[in-house]
Write a structure and sequence with these properties.
alpha+beta; Beta-Lactamase; Helix Hairpins; 5-stranded antiparallel β-sheet; 5-stranded mixed β-sheet; 20 helices; elongated
Length: 648
């Protein structure tokens, strides 16, 4: 209690404990000066002066909080209730103070916790001992779509569990008053299934008895999506690694195969070149008898054809891989084709002491729709391989008509040998380019390793396929199947026994020697002296008058000069690769100048687009090197006749 002057007149034991001053220390002292915080003194004096006059003030009849000071200077928060008491005409004050520092701190902490709970992204649920929801934070409401009241109306949180087993486990934990944790699939109000990771803890009283539960649920939908994405990414990486490993293995295998192929091709090229160069040098020496010269010439010719075949194989493979194999489906006679193969290959078999025959199983069509050149090429390749890899026994070419369940008809040709055979592992690779069953095969039997890849590519271009069966040491069977085309009205014939080869000639064979004579003036533009001498020798021997030019510029000048002199050329053989002015540019220049004489391109390139390039430049025709004498003479004869018609 304070008297009208503000001096303390009463001080109880509780005040002594709160402030640290005994009764004797404070009686007669001013409460505000002794206990008040210095920063509040001015305000206190003003308020107390009013109280002295009127008995009224901000704290009279009310409860307020203020900052008080303990003995020693430590401040604390006090709650003050002040009453006015009038004695002997003057106002006295009765003050009741309570230390509320701890309560304020607790309330502050509670507000902080509440703000954290309200702003948390995890769902927080409070339940009593029976499992009734007493509180949901905003996140729990947003995730589930329910309020506490609506959840209780459904029967509690257990009713929202999408999995019955999980619902049972939660119900048991609530009934037994123990914590529980785990993944919970919750059925939200909008029927979505939400995956939450729940952890429920018990709330106990001072006697450690369970009075409720607090459960925290974290939405793990994004985490599960991320985990699934990671699993898928890991699976994709694993698949990519497997694919990369397989691609690496295939690349390494291909590299080894190509290295082996290049070594083999080096052998295949150098062997005939050795014979060609050796016999050519011997012929140049001029110390051979006529018989020896004839043998040398035949050897050079034979090895030259072998080199040309190697080049054709490489070109055929490049066309197949580019999908540009020219195929012409026409009516052709399979018996004649098989007879031609028999006639062509019998000599090789006889030289090796092998038997070779063509057999038929039943009737076959008199004619089919296919490409006879490509069909003959495939069969010659298959039979040639069989003869090459057979040392004892023989080779059979077996043909039959195959009528299939889908109504289609196929010509099936089996090439059966008693050769060295192959293992199953070797069979898996024989149709790959640059591959032979064994790297020692090329050294022992020769061959480029391209034949079977080319044959299968050609078979597929004809709409068919080639399969193979083999037993190591017992021989092999290669089966060619090609569609026959429609056979309505086509008679079936019985060929029987071994087919007899007829004397037919195709563009793939050497043409028969002729006595064709040429009459006309030919300009040969060729920069290579050997080819210039060879071609001019062939044409002059056949009767043509030949003038030579070393490049395209000289060729254009000679054409203009001959015309000015009244002795124009009848045709031009134009090499496409020459110095100064190449054959394409020279041809375009002649055409732009108005010359209409026939121009035939000569080149060592043999791709299909090279022919078109020559025609686009203005050439009338195209001939690839090496030059075949009879073919060249026939080509020149054809265009000399064209020139003669133009002059008429």
């Amino acid at each position: 209690m304070m008297d009208p002057d503000g001096a303390i007149s009463f001080w109880n034991e509780a005040a002594a404990r709160m402030f640290g001053y005994t009764r004797e220390e404070v009686i007669g002292a001013g409460l505000h000066e002794l206990l008040g915080a210095p920063r509040h003194l001015e305000q206190f004096h003003s308020a107390f002066a009013r109280f002295q006059r009127t008995g009224q003030g901000a704290a009279v009849g009310k409860t307020i909080q203020l900052e008080a000071v303990r003995k020693g200077g430590k401040e604390f928060t006090a709650e003050l209730s002040l009453a006015a008491l009038r004695l002997e005409g003057q106002w006295n004050a009765v003050a009741v103070l309570r230390d509320v520092s701890e309560r304020n701190r607790a309330e502050t902490e509670l507000r902080r916790v509440r703000r954290a709970v309200e702003s948390a992204s995890d769902a927080i649920v409070l339940m009593d001992r029976q499992g009734t929801v007493t509180y949901l934070n905003p996140a729990a409401v947003a995730i589930s779509g329910y309020t506490a009241e609506s959840i209780n109306a459904l029967g509690g949180p257990v009713a929202l569990a999408a999995n019955p087993e999980t619902a049972t486990r939660i119900s048991t934990a609530i009934r037994e008053g123990r914590p529980w944790t785990g993944e919970l699939e919750l059925r939200a109000r909008d029927a979505r299934i939400v995956s939450l990771l729940w952890q429920a803890s018990t709330i106990t009283d001072e006697r450690q008895e369970v009075v409720g539960f607090v459960a925290v649920g974290r939405d793990i939908r994004e985490r599960k999506c991320a985990e699934e994405a990671i699993r898928q990414h890991a699976a994709a990486l694993e698949a990519a690694n497997r694919a990369l490993a397989e691609a690496t293995r295939v690349a390494e295998t291909a590299t080894r195969a190509k290295s082996a192929f290049l070594a083999n091709m080096s052998h295949e090229l150098r062997t005939p070149l050795t014979a060609i160069l050796g016999f050519a040098e011997t012929l140049r020496g001029g110390r051979m008898s006529p018989a020896q010269e004839e043998y040398a010439i035949q050897t050079i010719h034979r090895n030259g054809k072998h080199l040309l075949q190697l080049i054709d194989d490489v070109l055929d493979l490049s066309k197949i891989e580019a999908g540009k194999v020219p195929v012409e489906l026409v009516w052709c006679t399979p018996a004649e084709i098989l007879a031609g193969v028999e006639s062509m290959m019998r000599g090789e078999a006889v030289v090796k002491g092998l038997s070779f025959c063509v057999q038929y199983d039943g009737l076959i069509p008199e004619r089919i729709q296919s490409d006879p050149t490509r069909l003959r090429q495939i069969l010659v390749n298959l039979v040639g391989n069989a003869v090459r890899f057979t040392e004892v026994g023989g080779v059979r070419l077996h043909a039959q008509l195959d009528r299939r369940s889908d109504g289609t008809t196929w010509l099936e040709c089996e090439v059966i040998d008693t050769g060295i055979g192959m293992t199953e592992e070797q069979l898996e690779h024989i149709f790959q380019p640059f591959t032979q069953a064994d790297t020692t095969i090329s050294r022992r039997f020769g061959g480029s390793g391209l034949g079977l890849a080319i044959s299968r590519g050609l078979a597929e271009a004809l709409g068919g396929t080639i399969t193979a069966e083999s037993k190591l040491g017992l021989g092999s069977v290669f089966t060619l199947s090609i569609p026959t085309g429609p056979l309505e009205g086509v008679p079936l014939v019985e060929c029987g026994g071994t087919a007899v080869a007829e004397s037919t000639w195709t563009e793939d064979d050497d043409p028969p020697e002729t006595e064709t004579r040429l009459c006309g003036r030919v300009l040969l533009a060729e920069d290579g002296p050997d080819n210039r001498n060879l071609i001019s020798f062939i044409l002059r021997k056949a009767g043509a008058a030949v003038c030579l030019a070393e490049n395209g510029r000289i060729a254009c000048d000679l054409v203009a000069r001959a015309h000015a002199e009244g002795k124009p050329f009848d045709m031009v053989l134009m090499d496409v690769q020459m110095p100064v002015l190449d054959g394409y540019a020279a041809t375009r220049e002649l055409r732009q100048a108005g010359w209409t004489l026939p121009i035939v391109a000569l080149t060592a390139h043999a791709m299909s687009d090279d022919r078109q390039k020559a025609l686009d430049a203005g050439c009338d025709d195209y001939a690839s090197k090496p030059i075949h004498r009879a073919h060249l003479i026939e080509l020149v004869r054809k265009y000399l006749l064209v020139a003669a018609d133009q002059k008429r």
